[in-house]
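job 3f2a | input accepted
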Amino acid sequence: MNKSSGSYPYKIELEKSNAHIIVEISEYAPDAVVSKTIIKKTTGNVTVSSLYQGEELAEKTSPFDTYIQIIDGKAEVTINKKTIQLKLGEGIVIPANSAHCFNANEQFKMISTTIKSDYKD
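job 3f2a | predicted structure (121 res):
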């Protein structure tokens, strides 16, 4: 997890019971991916990530469903070799046990929500 300067200092989680401007939580950094944890629990987590143009998140697989929503820019996500373009406001569920990766053809920010539970399809 990268640290960045700005109005949201690095913390494990954001302060509870305080309003936040979601697109300002994670800032763009040249040639980098910056992620900030909003909530991290054993039952799941919520993270905001910023990907600078040209960056990528390498392919990985998660044993849990993950919901992604684009909060700035446009993203390219590949799920099980199928490429999908997501624009501002759009979201997608990445099914558990699916290979997926992200490419920033232009810079973008996303919220990632993973619910960890006994997964049964």
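job 3f2a | Residues 20 and 82 are 34 Å apart (CA to CA).
job 3f2a | closed
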